[in-house]
Amino acid sequence: MRDLERDLAGARDLLVVDASERDTARALHRFEQRRIRRRRRQMGAGGVAAVALVAAVVMSLPGADPIVVPARPIAATDPKPVAPQQRVVYFADGSHATLMQPRTEVRVEASQEDLLELSLAAGEARFEVVPSDTRLFRVRAQDLYVEVIGTSFTVAVRPEDEVDVSVHEGRVAVFAGDNRYELGRDMKLAFVAGRVVVDEAAEDEVEPEPEPKKRKKRRKRARKKKQTQKKERWTALAEDGKFDDAFDALDRTTRAPRGTKDLMLAADVARLSGHPRDAARYLKIVVDRHPNHPRALVAAFTLGRLWQNELKEPRRAAEAFAKARVLGPTGSLAEDALAHEAECWALAGERDKAKDRASTYLTRYPEGRKVKSMRRLAGRAR
Amino acid sequence: MPPTKPSSQDVGLRLVKGQAVEPPDEGPATFEECFSRYHRLVATIGLRMLGRKSEVDDFVQDVFLEVHRGFGKLRDRRAAKGWVRSIAVRVAIKRLRRLRLAATFGLDQPIDLDAFFHNPRQEHATLLLQVYRTLDDLPAKARVVWVLRFIEGEKLEDIAKLTDMGLSTVKRLLAAAQARIQAAVDA
Fold it and tell me: How far apart, in whole angstroms, are the C-alpha atoms of residue A168 and residue A148?
């Protein structure tokens, strides 16, 4: 008997709605609109002013499809409340900027898959950046560039050519001309009239990057170390949901996955990192070499879906679904496997086989979920 | 200006003498705050109860409509979370009954693996598909009880409170649902 409680513990995380603040703002907006519509219906008329109010609450800004909502404290524990006149600009990836002053001007200079570049022309803004390995978040203020990956920081453009950068969480790199400075949590740097001003207390913490030669060596060492770690840790990366990195590491590893658990994980890694053919290879090993293992049924079913949906080879898909039916003739996947098999035979041009499987479906599952489409395939459409 | 290590005031820090400042939670002061705080919670309950991503948005709206009606009368705002959850459970039972009725007339949208999960681990996704297929055949109350116990991880006493049922009824429904689901995944 399968240990359902244990297995469900691993699957539970898939049943979480990962709503960002932006999603919540949208849902609240929808709710307000719906409520207003209901009230208008109840009252019979009016309500135009209320709609206008809601429209003022949630409105779009040009560029990078941000949404501006009235600000509230960034975190429950943030002791610095945000004044009512301040605004929050949300970006598509969930990062956001709190415009700290009415005159704050933030412009989107570039919004690409690998880069979100903003410029702060005036005023002060606090940035909360969602971590991303693939997208660089950059803020420009006068001649200063601040680059971050997953952090929270404030940039302020002050009178007399002064720019301040304060880091609340994570690390940022500040570029001033040819110099690069790294700031950690709680650190602050001022850039006055083209000159970085650092006081004695902070000097040991605000470090310019080491000499180029040293840096090169260090980078090389780090890369080597990383590669070694990757080789050993593709499973760990996969467990963390870093499927691209995991596939990369899996590709380099000298020890191919063997057990059904590793093979299934390798198939997930390949499938979710956009390598369906590699995924099919791993799944086929499970089906062919471990037909008596409970995982073989899931492997065959997944193989069918891969051939059907991603590799567009309906004949192979039909064969995989047929295998899944053999492996689990009475399980809850049997109904799906049979329906998919019929559909795939039809797509492969095997009309007789498709008709036969569809008829079998109708006999076995007269109240089934796919009765309509199976009737069509069996030539019994009403 | 000496741009040194800033004081906590300068940068709006959350630390005071190295300790995170956690103000006592007084609960949401306004309905909007309540929505912002518990939107994700309600959406997750919706997904877990209904098993259909497409139903979640409407479910959230229905739940917060009820919350909005009663928010002004809620005396102890610190109990808001539990109160919102109990409303969510009640709304879920209603919606599940409606879905079952729709299914009787062939109007229900079947659970679809691709629509249900975003980038899932296949083994987990298949297990959940099997589970939710079986749950679809169970009465609404039995389904809700099972989800509360095995997906939400609630204690039996809490389930009884949330669903407004007796403890023995909860146990009976849970045992029946569990037997069906175990049989389905073992088959």
Answer: 12
Measured between CA atoms, the residue of chain A closest to residue B105 is A367
B164 Cα to chain A: minimum distance (Å): 25
CB-nearest to A77 from B22, B65, B134 is B22
**pLDDT recorded at residue A119:** 84
Helix then strand then coil, % of chain A, to nearest 5: 45, 20, 30
CA separation for the pair A264, A262 (Å, rounded): 5
ipTM reported for the complex surpasses 0.95: no
CB contact under 8 A, A8 and B150: yes
| Partner-chain contact A24 B35, CB within 8 Å | yes
B138 contacts B97 by C-beta, under 8 angstroms: no
Contact indicator for A180, A208 with CB cutoff of 8 Å: yes
Pairing of the two strands A188-192 and A195-197: antiparallel
Q: Is the overall model pTM greater than 0.80, yes or no?
A: no
- Residues A271/A248, Cβ–Cβ less than 8 Å: no
The pLDDT-based confidence of B120 (bands split at 50, 70, 90) is low
> Highest-confidence range of A40-49, A130-139, A331-340, by mean pLDDT?
A331-340
Task: Enumerate residues 6+ apart whose C-beta is below 8 A from B47.
Answer: A15, A16, A17, B53, B56
